[in-house]
Write a structure and sequence with these properties.
By secondary structure, the protein is α/β, with parallel strands linked by helices. The protein is 46% helix and 22% strand. It has one domain: Glutaredoxin.
Amino acid sequence: MIHRSLVILLALYGILVADQVAANTPTTSASESQVVVYYFHRTSRCHSCLTIEANIDDALKAHFPDALDDGSLLWLPTNTEEPENAHFEEDFSLEFSSAVLVRLDGKKVVSWTNLEKVWDLLENKEEFLVFIQQAVGAALAGESKEQDTQKQR
């Protein structure tokens, strides 16, 4: 009886982990383009980190509801302390909590930009929202003002 319960618990844990990994993985087909806005954070977060995430969420939901609904834009707050997400720190040269804008062509990363300016705009929500709106709008339009692996300041 204990063995059966343990097997069931392990199976449920496996399903939960698989769902978490899937939730942090873009869902494009080989021929689709997609923009992903990640907010990478750790488990323990300060007020500023929580504010940045909330402001990005507000900007995306207010200005890009159709893109979010049709999947051409993904919003993925992601905890880099989760084992399945640890690779992002190296993939995007993360040093601290960061907003990263990624353009995909199918499953291939075309470009990515660390939107470090969100930290500078933390105290000015209006400018913060405009900054996110412009960066995401340009990415959705296929414009790339930054080279691969650049930081936008």
